[in-house]
């Protein structure tokens, strides 16, 4: 399975990743959300290079211009709530895409143990389309796994792009095991080595949902 790790390439994307990680900067919620969105925009641009293109003859005021544009039918799916600004970044570039939303949250049994609960899905049919599942954080990979299973109740996509900002190595390994090898690409801005006993990514950035939208009770 192809894994694209943007931290291996020097680009301005790394500046935005450094700001969302940085304790001196990340508490500015507006900046945090906008940085997540900007990373989504850059990732969308890079991802678009993998799509299928055909030439269309575009009528201009002065003649006909052949332009190669993508033909993929895109569905951008996001995992609430931290996925929202990331989703918006993709949607800014893929403005013709259809959209899906899945809720997934950790319901704690005690301070360490939790189950992931999915209670809501709003999605079009995804048969034979290009499915992009966006979630900025992949820690255990369980939210992504259950959200993907929920999406499969809406059909079977032709290809899948799993887009994340910070992924743990464990989550990458997990996703490689559960997503179809021949039609999945994983995109991430960085891969961090470990998760702690609370299943938070280390060094990670903390809680992306809380940093974007405030703490939950
Ligand atoms: O890989 P996992 O171990 O499943 O963890 C990653 C999940 O945790 C975060 O969501 P969270 O449950 O904190 O919900 P929130 O977006 O509402 O904060 C994040 O956005 C992922 O969905
Ligand atoms: O590190 C983590 C793990 C889960 N959710 C987050 O927002 N961050
Ligand atoms: Mg959270």
Automatic annotation (TrEMBL):
State the needed cofactors, names only. Answer: Mg(2+)
What sequence ranges are listed for the domain Phosphoribosyltransferase? 11-214
The protein's annotated catalytic reaction(s) are: UMP + diphosphate = 5-phospho-alpha-D-ribose 1-diphosphate + uracil
User: Which one Pfam family would you cite for this protein?
Assistant: UPRTase
Q: Which organism is it from?
A: Bacteroides finegoldii CL09T03C10
Q: Which UniProt keywords apply?
A: Allosteric enzyme, Glycosyltransferase, GTP-binding, Nucleotide-binding, Transferase
User: Matching InterPro entries, A to Z?
Assistant: PRTase-like, PRTase_dom
EC number in record: 2.4.2.9
- NCBIfam families, from UniProt? PRK00129.1
- What is the protein name for this chain? Uracil phosphoribosyltransferase
Which PANTHER family does the entry mention?
A: HYPOXANTHINE PHOSPHORIBOSYLTRANSFERASE, HYPOXANTHINE-GUANINE PHOSPHORIBOSYLTRANSFERASE
Tell me, what does this protein do in biology? Catalyzes the conversion of uracil and 5-phospho-alpha-D-ribose 1-diphosphate (PRPP) to UMP and diphosphate.
Entry GO MF terms: GTP binding; uracil phosphoribosyltransferase activity
Q: By its UniProt entry, which Gene3D superfamilies does this protein fall under?
A: 3.40.50.2020
Pathways involved: Pyrimidine metabolism; UMP biosynthesis via salvage pathway; UMP from uracil: step 1/1
| Superkingdom as given in the UniProt entry | Bacteria
> What family does the database annotate?
Belongs to the UPRTase family.
